[in-house]
Amino acid sequence: MGGYILKKVWKKHYPDHIKSEVDIPDIALTEFLTRSVERFPDNTAITFFDKTITYKELGMQAAAFASSLQNYGISKGDRVAIMLPNCPHYVISYYGALMAGGVVTQVNPMLVGRELEHILTDSGAETLVLYAPLVPVFEKIKADTPVKHVIVVDFAQEYKPAGEEIAFTTFLQTAPGPPKQVTINPANDVAVLQYTGGTTGRSKGAMLTHRNLVANVVQTHEYFKDDIEPGKERYLTVIPLFHVFGMTVCMNQSIQSGSSMILLPRFEMEEVLETIKREQPTYFPGVPTMYVAITSHPKAEQYGIDSIRVCNSGSAPMPQELMRSFETKTGGRIYEGYGLSETAPVTHCNPMFGERKPGSVGIGVPSTDYKIVDVSNGVDEVPVGETGEVIVRGPQVMKGYWNMPEETELALRDGWLYTGDIARVDDEGYLYILDRKKDLIIAGGFNIYPRDIEEILYEHDAVQEAVAVGIPDEYRGETVKVVVVLKDGKSATEEELIAYCRDNMAAYKVPGSVEFRSELPKTNVGKILRRKIREEAASKAKQ
């Protein structure tokens, strides 16, 4: 079927001035920064608490970082790992490494030593940009990694190396002059190794080329161009930049448009609200748990939250009741989208220029084909409205997995990326993500999608967060258990919630048990760790 769905959707929904297919410029990702430095030299590129950096300053510091890397022997294709929270140093290191011809290896600062060791050794990174408080974590595994150069970032004070490390500011000062020009083949040269979460086993490095990353910025810009004023937007950037969502939708998108990033290193409710009040952001890319926190705050409306015109929600499904509550309270609009590390990441989003369907992740962004295929054979396309695995293709789809040819062959087949997500499309081409294949609950022969249960629970007045998982059952194979966090000041019993589910869903979906918690385990992006909850629930069920 190829692009049939995309073309059908475009004809029905898209205005003539928004293109269904876009031309991807044959440039390195760093060209976006170069162009914004030329167009908006005095515009604020970054705000970080009381510190601001203009585009001219950002360009100079990224170039100095690149020159210093080259002076240390870094050449084209060498991997430079960055393990930092959101801060100006991240942006400088990221673009500086690419200017030097390096490959950025994104590293989550919350990783423990064993996980960090795997990524550093798997990527072969010989350079590591490291947050000062994490030096002890690295020191324990340093001897088992290929790392030779450690550049340390310290927010509080100038870092004083205890060993061979070098402080970030000192490193910039070692630049002998402008960096040497490096020839980049955008379609072939890898810019970023984006490691997946490893929830299905060993963490894999998705190879994102310069073209993949440039394409996704161009695609999303075309999709939202009616609401992006170059040089004027202010992106509240609390989504981690090491996460593919934050990297593209906050950092690369804002730099391409000459806009400002308002950086926060973590999501702390009062800090976020005070920042909104002070900086008046216009864009707020976030995840559902962030919107839960804002919706639950009793005085959120008093912080000028109506300055935010657009909220892009990604990384996890957005419960419809949460969307309604947030929008009623703040006046903002949430546009839920979908993507993966392997697609740099955006493939779908609800359109601002067309119908927004709550519960859907929208339609494909320009130059993105998608279809739903039979889970059992991965080939036969299923009828509209029926469930199957969603597969996608487009210029944002990764080159493959780093040093994992077998995994690459499974994921990339005949030009299509197999996402592993169970979904359906309606007759207008809107995509509905139901669950990951591995999260599907099979009870008594029935396929149960956790999201179906969670959507109902989010409509209950006492429920703030809910996760449904399958646990072993001798009779049914699996049965449903839900783990719930109640809203402050609200109460509910297990019997009440089960009765509520029984009144609102088919009998085979009704949970057999309910566990109450004060909080749910999450990644530092704010994504609920369903796998961990499932494993804990299964372990308790066996006791």
Short recap of the structure:
Helices cover 32% and strands 23% of the residues. With 543 residues, it is α/β, with parallel strands linked by helices.
General description of the model:
The mean pLDDT is 89. The chain is 32% helix and 23% strand. The chain has 16 helices and 26 strands. Among the domains are: 30-42 and 52-183, Rossmann fold, CATH 3.40.50; 440-542, GMP Synthetase, Chain A, domain 3 (2-Layer Sandwich). With 543 residues, it is an alpha/beta fold. Helix 15 (494-504) links the parallel strand 25 (477-486) and strand 26 (513-516).
Give me the count of strands: 26
Strand order of the largest sheet: 7-6-5-3-4-8-9-18
Write down the overall mean pLDDT: 89
Give the CATH topology of the domain at 30-42 and 52-183. Answer: Rossmann fold
**Structural class, please?**
alpha/beta
Q: End-to-end span in angstroms?
A: 50 Å
Keywords, separated by commas or semicolons:
16 helices; 26 strands
Give a topology summary.
Blueprint: H1 4-13, H2 30-39, E1 44-48, E2 51-54, H3 55-71, E3 79-83, H4 88-99, E4 103-106, H5 113-123, E5 127-131, H6 135-141, E6 149-153, E7 166-167, H7 168-173, E8 190-195, E9 205-209, H8 210-224, E10 234-237, H9 244-256, E11 260-263, H10 269-279, H11 288-296, E12 311-313, H12 320-330, E13 334-339, E14 346-349, E15 363-364, E16 369-373, E17 388-393, E18 400-401, H13 405-411, E19 412-413, E20 416-425, E21 431-436, E22 441-443, E23 446-448, H14 450-458, E24 463-473, E25 477-486, H15 494-504, E26 513-516, H16 530-542
Parallel strand pairs: 1-11, 3-4, 3-5, 4-8, 5-6, 6-7, 10-11, 12-13, 25-26
Antiparallel strand pairs: 1-2, 8-9, 9-18, 13-14, 14-15, 16-17, 17-20, 19-20, 20-21, 22-23, 24-25
